[in-house]
Amino acid sequence: MRNLIIDLDAIAFNLGVMRNRAGGAKVCGVVKADAYGHGMVEVARKLEQAGVDYLGVADINEALTLRRAGIDAPILAWLHDAEEMFIEALNEGIELGLANVDHLNRVAAAAEITGRLARVHLKIDTGLGRNGASEAEWPQLLKLARGLVAEGFIQVVAIFSHLSSTGEAEDLAQIARFEAAVDVARQAGISFELRHLTASDGSLNYPQAHYEMVRIGLALYGLSPFSDNKAADYGLRPAMTATANVTQVKRVPAGEGVSYGYQHRTAAETTLALVPVGYAEGLPRQASGKAEVAINGKKYRILSRIAMDQFVLDAGDDNIEAGDLVTIFGDPAALVPSADDLADAADTINYEIVTRMGGRFVRSYLGRVDQE
Questions:
Q1: Does 70 share its domain with 194?
Q2: Whole domain around residue 296: which residue ranges?
Q3: Whether 143 is catalytic
């Protein structure tokens, strides 16, 4: 009675759209956070079948999950525990994004123990203020990396960073800082194959910064990273549809309070429809009174308070029955609310909406890749 329908063919299609926009650069498909709520293993299988060049995850546990599921594509992980030893990562051929001397030394030790060459991507912080070596730390990191290359412990595959997406002026300043950091790396004697800086938003906005690889996350799932542009503006197809079935309907008189706090009272005799989705499934409570859903081709606002397990719709005199399909969000081309609509109602972003969907939702897949 609660379903997340994931269209894997749409994800493969979106990969093609973004690959065409990348102008010949490799594409790293980002599947961290359970593929933004779409199911990491199933999405990775589809992307691998579609010829993605890399898969990107946040941490090594995510990368290991993919390897254990039989994913052979190159995998990059970039967010590491301070005490990580990296041995299992090297044994599974996982490439590592590194930003500090301690982690680089730990990777070298793991390479010596395992006898495996560590393939690393060195990260410079160009202004996001998160993961990445500072400009002051960068020369020391490069010096150590050069020595470890000479000793045969590591191979520097790439130099990378991440834009803050604050605005054009800030992004262009970061691009300039990134190119300066790359020049410093070259002057330090570091050889590398790839530069990668842009995620979905930067890849759409700054073709001059595609370099040898782009990292595509949100756009893979058919969503726009911009508040002023919709996915359809870029030819992208939303991949997630969240649905449920009405579990109960009843007629109530005027003046009836509905759900916690009586945020809504009925204005006249009306039909109430109960839908078994709440904030335990990721439907934001703060969207109460603002979010809309679709039933039988018509949109209804959730006027009452969203609860943990359910919400109630005031359907007036419309003919709604138990079992009717409720679309919470999906492809707006189907005339249903979108993830962007729900995000606006909850005063958040579409990234959060799709990533948080879970709880008792049951995922099903269109275009699933069969396992051999």
A1: yes
A2: 240-366
A3: no
